[in-house]
């Protein structure tokens, strides 16, 4: 039985194999053994299908964030930043498609806001707010801090896709540690990851 979930899964496989530019309703239909018109009972257009695949990627990313449950908020922020980079390295073409869409907090005059992108961005807002309350991040606007962290982590995620296999974790850890250090209150000593984190990364 043809379902929306099956269509999204086939489309995601197409994106991950050939890039989002190759996404085609006809190709998805062939992969599922149906005619292209049969897809329209579940998906209205290629644009809608692209957004559904991107949303599924964002939902998976949020699940990865939730699996990071370090008790210390700064360690949790670090762990979730590393999860972001790991996701980008594991799914580079899906990652590219996902960032054709923006969270609501990015205020640009382009009609590409996606609720799933907003949910992924906001997944860490509470941690940033908690870190500010605890004094482990500078007393600045939470949204501004979140944007700064995202910009840094997204940059390293992009570069990490180009480095030799297996070396991205060390690169990501160094950049994320430097970012978190730079955002600490000026009167605090440098934050460092725990021994167990250093041994893993």
TL;DR?
The protein has 201 residues and is mostly helical. It has eleven helices and no strands.
List the main descriptive attributes of the protein structure presented here.
201 residues; mainly alpha; Arc Repressor Mutant, subunit A; 2 domains; 11 helices; elongated; Tetracycline Repressor, domain 2; disordered C terminus; 0% strand
Explain what you see:
This protein has 201 residues and is mostly helical. It has 2 domains: 41 residues, Arc Repressor Mutant, subunit A; 148 residues, Tetracycline Repressor, domain 2 (Orthogonal Bundle), CATH 1.10.357.10. The longest helix is centred in the first third of the chain and has 21 residues. It is built from 11 helices and no strands. α1 packs across α4, α4 runs antiparallel to α5 and α5 runs parallel beside α9.
CATH class of the largest domain: Mainly Alpha
Radius of gyration of CA atoms, rounded to a whole number:
19 Å
User: What global shape is seen?
Assistant: elongated
Low-pLDDT segments, ≥5 res: 194-201
- Mind telling me which CATH architecture of the largest domain this is? Orthogonal Bundle
Name the CATH superfamily assignment of the largest domain.
Answer: Tetracycline Repressor, domain 2
Main β-sheet: number of strands, strand sense, barrel status? none
- Strand runs, count: 0
């Amino acid at each position: 039985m043809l379902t929306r979930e099956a269509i999204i899964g086939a489309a995601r496989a197409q994106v991950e194999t050939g890039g989002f530019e190759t996404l085609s309703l006809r190709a998805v239909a062939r992969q599922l053994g149906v005619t292209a018109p049969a897809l329209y009972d579940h998906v209205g257009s290629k644009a809608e299908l692209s957004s559904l695949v991107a949303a599924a990627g964002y939902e998976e990313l949020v699940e990865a964030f939730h699996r990071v449950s370090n008790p210390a908020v700064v360690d949790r922020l670090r762990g979730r930043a590393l999860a972001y980079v790991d996701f980008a390295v594991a799914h580079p073409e899906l990652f590219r498609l996902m960032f054709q869409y923006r969270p609501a907090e990015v205020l640009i005059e382009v009609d590409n806001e996606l609720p799933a992108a907003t949910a992924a961005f906001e997944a860490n807002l509470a941690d940033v707010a908690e870190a500010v309350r605890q004094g482990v991040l500078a007393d600045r606007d939470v949204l501004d801090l979140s944007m700064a962290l995202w910009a840094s982590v997204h940059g390293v995620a992009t570069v990490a896709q180009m480095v030799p296999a297996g070396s991205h974790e060390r690169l990501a850890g160094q950049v994320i540690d430097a970012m978190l250090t730079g955002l600490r209150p000026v009167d605090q000593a440098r934050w460092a990851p725990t021994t167990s984190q250093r041994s893993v990364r």
